[in-house]
Amino acid sequence: MAKLLSCVLGPRLYKIYRERDSERAPSGVPETPTSVTTPPSSSWDTYYQPRALEKHADSILALASVFWSISYYSSPFAFFYLYRKGYLSLSKVVPFSHYAGTLLLLLAGVACLRGIGRWTNPQYRQFITILEATHRNQSAENKRQLANYNFDFKSWPVDFHWEEPSSRKESRGGPSRQGVALLRPEPLHRGTADTLLNRVKKLPCQITSYLVAHTLGRRMLYPGSVYLLQKALMPMLLQGQARLVEECNGRRAKLLACDGNEIDTMFVDRRGTAESQGQKLVICCEGNAGFYEVGCVSTPLEAGYSVLGWNHPGFAGSTGVPFPQNEANAMDVVVQFAIHRLGFQPQDIIIYAWSIGGFTATWAAMSYPDISAVILDASFDDLVPLALKVMPDSWRGLVTRTVRQHLNLNNAEQLCRYQGPVLLIRRTKDEIITTTVPEDIMSNRGNDLLLKLLQYRYPRVMAEEGLRVVRQWLEASSQLEEASIYSRWEVEEDWCLSVLRSYQAEHGPDFPWTVGEDMSADGRRQLALFLAQKYLHNFEATHCTPLPAQNFQIPWHL
Predict the structure, then answer these.
(1) Phosphatidylserine Lipase ABHD16 N-terminal domain: from which residue to which, for each copy (predicted)?
(2) Do 329 and 203 belong together in one domain?
């Protein structure tokens, strides 16, 4: 009876992976009392095949879940319609509640039938036995056996807790349960007295901004968190995860962040290979509709690096909602997991981000200054110009206020707090982070990210002459045009390198530098072009084109 109840309440099982020979337990090692013997891999190398009863019951429950999701998103319009028609009176609501109660009882009966179908299936009984054993005792053997199954991630046991690292309070004063530290935007009206009357006047605008951010705004910014989209992508996500586990020996793990969100991660270890890149770990930060199963992790994997992918809060197996604070909390526990559980030193970690993932990447670079390098692909400097692009001009004030207060993705501000090597990859046909049309390459917000970074690090070089010539270089949309501008100003790379190295030897590596202070205008132009070419690489593609492995390069540094 206990096993039947476990089958009724247990998670949905999607796939049983083939067992890898490298993970088989040594024959001379005795099993723990709670370990479970896994059947031979030859009969288990397939998607899980439910019995007819479980299959049909699952279909009914899945359909009910989709209808519930549609009802949730359309509920404001439904309530308005019912109110106008007079259906919200007590005499109408009571019968409706009876119908709803009957429907819930029927769905509960369907769930019980599904549990009976699972109970009659030896594959599911085997799985639920291993899952229960792992929850009781998270031994290495039990976790190894559980890793052979792909199931609803809510039931996966927590592998790493944000409070586990004993050294973090000593080293950097770890986060509280309220979350890690973020850079807060300056008040829109500086110098205004924050009196009670002013607070009351601002209250309607603040309430409106809150409602917009937590309804339409968040879902527009992170469409990957919408349940219906995840449901449509589920077959593709399962295939991608199977590829990472079966072909790349990926290891899935659940991390618990300081805000209580559970973060779904996948780690591929290449340290045992002959390739030197395998000693470096690339932490990948996905875009606003990206998942590690099918996202940018493929680029560093093809390049031979060890890779740690993770899903945003609210994406696939991760819980929560992807607001900036939750995003930073998730990134913090991912970095801590990489250092304290996977055993990588910060100097061996590279942060690689695509698109909106630049926010968490720059936050990690700001908060963990010892990391090796940061690579930002198709990213931007600030969210406000891109948000204004897609909203009516009459909403400018509301959009700006909403972004600054609730969705403040200030990538450039965070990146300027990082002292290490940086590489920006600009898509020359990007249709997402341009504020006009894809053909207008100067409206690409990656340009602004580069300019703000160079102006912070080399303010004397990026004076009028330097800024002007870098803008000319950024207007180039092909390698031929870039080379033409570069040769027109006769950039002597050896001279630029010697100037920068001499300054670093005399003044140290910390930015900002005053190099170029006593330099001619021609010298500043040469240095500005040299630095721009080192910090930004062009890639002739649209926003969503996968980055080839040969374009994944370690950032330049002296």
Answers:
(1) 3-152
(2) yes
- Beta-strand relationship, 281-285 and 349-354: parallel
DSSP state of 444: B
Is the backbone peptide bond immediately before 33 cis, with ω within 30 degrees of 0?
A: no
Place of tokens 């990026």: 462
- What are 373's two structure tokens? 């390098």
Q: What Rg do the C-alpha atoms of the chain give, in angstroms?
A: 27
Query: What is the per-residue pLDDT across 384-394, written as a single tens digit (0 to 9) for each?
Result: 999 999 999 99
Per-residue pLDDT averaged across 319-331, rounded? 97
For residues 224 and 315, the answer to whether their CB atoms sit within 8 Å is yes
449 and 361 part of one domain = no
The CATH number linked to 270 is: 3.40.50.1820
- Same domain for 411 and 448, yes or no, is no
Band (pLDDT 50/70/90 cuts) for residue 193 is low
Banded pLDDT at 27 (limits 50, 70, 90): very low
Q: Does 209 lie in the same domain as 144?
A: no
Count of positions (residues) in the chain: 558
| CA dist., res. 514 & res. 530, Å (int) | 16
pLDDT at position 198: 80
pLDDT of residue 310: 98
Chain-centroid distance, C-alpha 355: 10
Note whether 526 and 466 are within 8 A (CB): no
Domain of residue 451: give its range.
441-557
Nearest Cα to Cα of residue 57 among 114, 11, 1: 114
Which residues are known catalytic residues? 355, 430, 507
Q: Rounded CA gap, 101 and 389, in Å?
A: 46
Q: Indicate whether 415 and 445 sit together in one domain.
A: no
One DSSP character per residue, 172-201 reads H---BTTB---PPPPPSSTT----HHHHHH
Give Cα 380 to chain centroid, integer Å: 15
Q: Which of 420, 452, 479 lies at the terminal end of a domain, its last residue?
A: 420
Q: CA 264, 267, 272: angle at the middle one, nearest 5? A: 170
CB within 8 A of 276, min separation 6: which ones? none
Q: Into how many domains does the chain fold?
A: 3
Quick one: 326 and 363 in the same domain? Answer: yes
pLDDT at 48: 86
- φ and ψ at residue 468, rounded to 5 degrees: -65, -45
Is the model's pTM score more than 0.70? yes
Contact 425, 539 (CB under 8 A): yes
The tally of CA atoms less than 13 A away on the side-chain side of residue 113 is: 16
- What is the Cα–Cα distance from 367 to 117, expressed in whole angstroms? 50
